[in-house]
Write a structure and sequence with these properties.
The complex is a heterodimer of chains A (about 500) and B (about 400). With about 500 residues, chain A is of the alpha+beta class. Chain A is built from 16 helices and 16 strands. In chain A, α3 packs antiparallel against α8, α3 (about 40-50) runs antiparallel to α16 and α10 packs across α11. Chain B has about 400 residues and is an alpha+beta fold. Helix content of chain B is about 40%, strand content about 15%.
C-alpha cells in the first residue's frame, strides 16, 4: 500500500464523514455532550445511533457523477471515560494512547497545552474536573436551522428512550459557518485545508489522519486493539502486525481517528482596543495601521489574502490562496515568524532547517480543522474588507465588550493527539523562542507560561524589528475534550456486548 | 583559537543505604536552582550554581549500578565548563556549601583535600563530544544576551528599533580548513582501533540519511548506500501503552529503579532541557559502537559548523560515553525545546544516524528509529531523570545564541 493509494468504497463507508469533510455546505451545527449513566442503556443508545451516523461514502448520482454532499450529517466522538462507561474492558482501553486515556483536562496535558490561569480546566463550562463528565459528543450538521432543530429533537428523543444516556445539561453548543467565513475577530478562517492523499491522490499521507493507513513515516500508526476472544463475532478486522502475531488481535482503530475539541472564547473588543492603543503608540492612529498590525499577528489580511503574497495591503483576489511558500520571506519581512498561520503551518521555512526538512516536518504535524464560530458577531466583519477609513477606525477603536460570549468551537482531526495537535500547540504556538524569537508566543492562541517574560509581537522590518507592548490574552479556553472517532465497524463493536 | 568548553563526566558508586538520602538532598538542590525555595535552601546543604561564572551546564543523576549488585547505584555528575579542570573543581568546591553531604555519600570520598584525585579517578572518557559554539564562553554568551536585552528595553520604552537580523557569523575558510585537517589522523586511528569494516559500515549507515548534502549524496550514489527498507509497516510499540517500562530483551537492564521525576525538572515547560540515556551494548557489536562514536566525534570536532550537528540545531552540548568496560552507552545532551520535538528533529535530520548509534543497543525496535513511536518508547525506557539540572543561560536557544553573538 503506497501513501497515495485511494481509499476504497468499503473504507469510505466505514469512515465517519467529519474526518473527510468539513461539511462546508451545511452551515448550521449543534454539538451535544452526552453522559452515559449505565452500560446497557448506553450501548442501546449507541446501537440505535450507529445506523444514522454519516460516513464518508460518496453518493454517486446519475451518469456516474460523484455527489459527495450529504443533506444532513450526524457524527460522534467518544472520550476515554465514555469508552469506560459503555463497559470497554480496561485491558482494551490501555491500548489507546496515554494522552487519550488521560484526557485533555489532566494535569500533564494542561501543562503541555498551556491551559493554565483563565484557561485552566477547573474553570471550564464542561469537560473539566468540576463538571459532569463528557462521555460522548454528537455533532449535528444541517443546511438550515429548521432542519437542525428537527435533528436535535430526534437525537434528544433517542437519548430519552435509551434509559442509559443523557444530555449533559447546559452543554449544547451552536456552531455557525457564516457567509463571510469570518471568525469573531473578523478574519476569514479555515482556508488552509490539507488534502488527504487517500481522497485526492495527492497531499498529506492518509495515515496522518486515519488509523490503518500509511503515515508520513511510511508506517501504519499505532492502533487500539481487542483480544480475539472479545471479538468472537469477528466484527473488527484482524490486525496484521507481525510483532504481535503471537496473539490474534482485532483492530479497533482502523478507519477511525482522534478528535480534539476546544471551546475558545475570543475577547474581540480587547483585541481591537489593543490594536488601537498600539497604533496610537506607534504614531499612526488610523484604521489602516490597526488592520495592518492585526494582520501581522494573523499572517493573513481580513479577506484571507496571505501577507506573503500581498505584503502591503489586503487583496480580496488572493483571499482563498493557500499555494504559497515562505522561501522569499525567510526573515518574515512580509509574514512575521511569530504570526499565527506561520506557526501552525510553517510550510517550507521552519527555522533553522533546510527546505526539504521543513516541508517534511510540517507534513508530519498537520491537522484537519473542523471548527465553527459561535456567538453573535460584535461588529460586521464586512467592514474590515472595505478600504480602511476614519469610520472604520471609530468602529474598531470604540468596540466595547457586550458581555456576550463569542469565539470558535475548535475541532481538529489527527491520527496522533500527542505528535500532531499537542506538538503544534507546545513546540510551535506556545513556544516564545519559535524560529529564533525571544519572547513571542502565538499572538492569537497562546499566552506566556507563568513566570515567563510577557509576549510581544515581533514584526521584522527592513530597518529593524518592531516590538509591540505585551500582548494581552485574547483567547480563553472554556471547554475541551479528547475523543476517539470510531469507524462505523468499531462503533458497532462498541455497542455490542463483549 | 580559544579553548572550547570542556566536559567533565564522573561516575561514583554510592555507599549502600545512602541513596535515598542523597536523592532527597539533590532534589532540594535542584529545586533551589529553579528558585523554588531558595530561602529554605540556605539552611540545607546547597550548591550556589547562580554564583558560578564558568559552568555552562551541570547535572546530577542517580544511575543504577548492576555490575556491583542489583541494589547498588552510582552518582552521575556531568558538567560543561570554561577554563581548566582545576579551576572548575575549585569553583565547584567554592559554591558547594557542604561537600561532604553530597560526595561523602559516595565510596572513596575522603574530604575536600583529596577531591581532585577523587574526581580524576572516577572521570569517564568521552567517546564523542559535540559543542554548538566552540568559541563562546559563559561570559561571552551572557554579555551578548545582556546587549540584546538592553536594546529591547530601550525599544520597549519607546526608543530606537532593534537592528535587523544579520547573517550568521561565518568561520573563516582558513580556520575551518585548519580545524578539519586532523580528520585524516582520526580516520587512521579509528580504522586501527576498530577495523576498516566497522568504520565503513558505521559511517555509511549514518550517511544514508544525509542525502541533502552533495558530498554525502555523491558517496551514496557511488556506493549505492541507502536507507534500508522497512521490515514491517506496523509499529512494534507494545500494545499496553500503560505498561511499566520493562526490559524488552534479556540483558537489557533498565538503568534506574523507577523514581518519579523531580517536579522542578519537568521537561515540558522549559526552554532548555536535559536528556540522559543509558543503554546496554550488545557485546558482539562493541567495535561498531566505537567506530560510530569515532566518526561522530571527528565530525563534531573537525567539520560541524557553529550551532549545527549535521543539521540538528537544538543541541548546546552532547556527549556519548562507552562506560562499564564497553558494556553500556551513556548519552547526555543539553538541548532546546520539548522532548517530543527534539526526538522528531533527530529522526528528520539523521534517521539512520540514530540507528547507527543505538541499533547495537539491546531493546532497539526492529525497524530502528523509523518506527518512531517505538523508538521514543525505547529512549523513554532508558532515560534517567536528572535530580539537579543547572543551565547558565536557561532562556537561550542555540538559535538565539547564534543570533545574539553577531549583533
Amino acid at each position: 500500500m503506497t501513501s497515495s493509494a485511494r481509499l476504497t468504497h468499503e473504507a469510505l463507508r466505514d469512515i465517519q464523514g467529519v474526518i473527510t469533510s468539513g461539511y462546508g455546505h451545511l452551515p448550521q451545527a449543534v454539538y451535544l455532550c452526552v453522559t452515559i449513566t449505565n452500560v446497557d442503556g448506553g450501548r442501546r443508545w449507541l446501537s440505535r445511533l450507529a445506523d444514522s451516523i454519516t460516513s464518508s461514502q460518496r453518493h454517486t448520482g446519475g451518469h456516474g457523477v460523484s455527489e459527495d454532499r450529504p443533506p444532513t450529517a450526524v457524527n460522534i466522538g467518544i472520550t476515554a471515560n465514555g469508552l469506560r462507561a459503555i463497559g470497554l474492558p480496561e485491558e482494551v482501553l490501555r491500548t489507546f494512547p496515554v494522552e487519550f486515556q488521560d484526557g485533555i483536562a489532566s494535569e500533564e496535558r494542561s501543562r503541555i497545552l498551556g491551559d493554565t490561569g483563565a484557561s485552566a480546566p477547573e474553570t471550564w463550562e464542561f469537560g473539566g474536573p468540576r463538571t459532569e463528565p463528557v462521555h460522548a459528543m454528537l455533532m449535528l450538521f444541517a443546511a438550515d436551522e429548521a432542519t437542525l432543530l428537527e435533528m436535535c429533537r430526534t437525537q434528544r428523543a433517542m437519548l430519552e428512550s435509551s434509559g442509559g444516556a443523557v444530555e449533559l445539561p447546559g452543554s449544547s453548543q451552536r456552531g455557525l459557518r457564516t457567509d463571510t467565513f469570518a471568525e469573531p475577530f473578523g478574519f476569514h478562517d479555515g482556508i488552509a485545508r490539507p488534502s488527504i492523499a487517500g481522497l485526492s491522490g495527492r497531499g498529506v499521507p492518509t495515515g496522518e489522519f486515519i488509523l490503518g493507513y500509511e503515515n508520513h513515516y511510511g508506517l501504519i500508526p499505532p492502533t487500539p486493539v481487542v483480544p480475539q476472544e472479545l471479538n468472537a463475532a469477528h466484527t473488527l478486522p484482524h490486525l496484521d502486525s507481525p510483532y504481535h502475531a503471537a496473539r490474534p488481535l482485532g483492530d479497533l482503530g482502523r478507519n477511525g481517528s482522534y478528535l480534539v475539541y476546544r471551546k475558545l472564547q475570543q475577547d474581540v473588543a480587547g483585541f481591537w482596543q489593543f490594536m488601537a492603543r498600539e497604533s496610537t503608540r506607534q504614531g499612526s492612529a488610523d484604521a489602516a495601521r490597526m488592520v495592518w498590525l492585526a494582520s501581522k499577528c494573523v499572517g493573513r489580511w481580513p479577506s484571507g489574502a496571505p501577507l506573503t503574497l500581498a505584503p502591503d495591503a489586503d487583496n480580496p483576489g488572493l483571499a482563498e490562496r493557500d499555494d504559497f511558500f515562505y522561501e522569499d520571506d525567510r526573515d518574515g519581512l512580509r509574514c512575521p515568524l511569530g504570526a499565527h498561520i506561520r506557526r501552525t503551518n510553517p510550510r517550507d521555512v521552519l527555522k533553522p532547517y533546510p527546505r526539504a526538512q521543513s516541508l517534511s516536518m510540517t507534513e508530519a504535524h498537520r491537522l484537519l480543522r473542523r471548527g465553527r464560530a459561535y456567538g453573535a458577531p460584535l461588529f460586521d466583519p464586512r467592514e474590515l474588507r472595505q478600504p480602511p477609513s476614519a469610520d472604520l477606525f471609530k468602529t474598531l477603536a470604540n468596540l466595547q465588550d457586550d458581555g456576550q460570549p463569542r469565539g470558535v468551537h475548535f475541532f481538529c482531526v489527527n491520527a496522533s493527539l500527542k505528535s500532531q495537535f499537542e506538538f503544534v500547540q507546545q513546540a510551535w504556538c506556545n513556544n516564545p523562542r519559535f524560529g529564533g524569537l525571544n519572547d513571542n508566543v502565538d499572538p492569537l492562541t497562546s499566552s506566556p507560561r507563568p513566570g515567563d517574560s510577557p509576549s510581544r509581537m515581533t514584526i521584522p522590518r527592513e530597518d529593524g524589528a518592531l516590538r509591540t507592548n505585551p500582548l494581552p490574552q485574547f483567547v480563553t479556553v472554556r471547554a475541551g475534550a479528547y475523543m476517539f472517532l470510531p469507524s462505523l465497524t468499531a462503533l458497532r463493536f462498541l455497542c455490542s456486548a463483549h | 583559537m580559544t579553548r572550547p568548553p570542556q566536559c567533565l563526566t564522573v561516575l561514583a558508586p554510592i555507599r549502600p543505604d545512602k541513596e535515598s538520602g542523597l536523592r532527597e538532598l539533590l532534589r532540594a538542590i535542584g529545586d533551589d536552582i529553579n528558585g523554588k525555595d531558595l530561602a529554605a535552601g540556605r539552611t540545607r546543604p546547597h550548591i550556589a550554581f547562580v554564583r558560578s561564572r564558568h559552568i555552562h551546564f551541570a547535572r546530577f543523576a542517580i544511575l543504577n549500578d548492576p555490575d556491583r549488585g542489583p541494589d547498588r547505584s552510582r552518582l552521575l555528575f556531568t558538567s560543561i565548563y570554561d577554563g581548566s579542570l582545576e579551576a572548575h573543581l575549585n569553583e565547584l568546591v567554592s559554591i558547594t556549601s557542604d561537600m561532604n553531604a553530597i560526595w561523602g555519600a559516595c565510596e572513596g570520598y575522603t574530604g575536600i583535600d583529596e577531591f581532585r584525585s577523587f574526581i580524576s579517578a572516577r572521570a569517564q572518557e568521552l567517546a564523542a563530544y559535540y559543542v554548538a559554539f566552540r568559541d563562546e564562553t559563559v561570559a561571552s554568551i551572557a554579555s551578548a544576551i545582556d546587549a540584546r536585552r538592553r536594546a529591547h528595553a530601550l525599544q520597549d520604552g519607546g526608543g530606537a528599533r532593534v537592528p535587523g537580523v544579520p547573517d550568521k557569523r561565518r568561520e573563516s575558510l582558513l580556520k575551518r580548513a585548519l580545524r578539519a585537517a586532523p580528520i585524516v589522523i582520526d580516520l587512521v586511528r579509528a580504522v586501527a582501533r576498530s577495523g576498516f569494516g566497522h568504520v565503513y559500515h558505521g559511517a555509511s549507515q549514518i550517511v544514508a540519511s544525509l542525502d541533502r548534502y552533495p558530498v554525502f549524496r555523491l558517496f551514496n550514489r557511488i556506493t549505492r548506500n541507502r536507507i534500508p527498507p522497512l521490515e514491517s509497516q506496523f509499529s512494534s510499540l507494545v500494545l499496553d501503552q500503560r505498561a511499566p517500562f520493562e526490559p524488552l530483551v534479556p540483558g537489557d537492564e533498565i538503568p534506574t529503579r523507577p523514581a518519579a521525576g523531580s517536579p522542578a525538572l519537568r521537561e515540558d515547560g522549559v526552554a532548555q532541557n536535559q536528556l540522559t540515556v543509558v543503554t546496554a551494548i550488545d557485546s558482539a557489536h562493541l567495535h561498531r559502537v566505537l567506530a560510530v562514536m569515532a566518526a561522530i566525534d571527528s565530525y563534531a570536532r573537525r567539520l560541524a559548523p557553529p550551532g549545527s550537528l549535521i543539521g540538528i540545531s537544538t543541541i548546546h552540548f552532547a556527549r556519548w560515553l562507552v562506560i562499564d568496560h564497553g558494556r553500556r552507552l551513556l548519552f547526555v545532551s543539553d538541548y532546546d525545546g520539548s522532548w517530543e520535538s527534539y526526538i522528531d528533529e533527530f529522526a528528520e535530520m539523521i534517521l539512520t544516524g540514530l540507528d547507527a548509534i543505538w541499533d547495537t543497543s539491546l531493546g532497539m525496535p526492529p525497524n530502528g528509529a523509523r518506527d518512531l513511536p517505538a523508538f521514543k518508547r525505547f529512549l523513554r525506557s532508558h532515560q534517567v531523570p536528572s535530580d539537579v539540572f543547572f543551565a547558565a543561560y536557561p532562556d537561550e536557544t542555540v538559535l538565539n545564541v547564534a543570533t545574539d553573538r553577531v549583533q
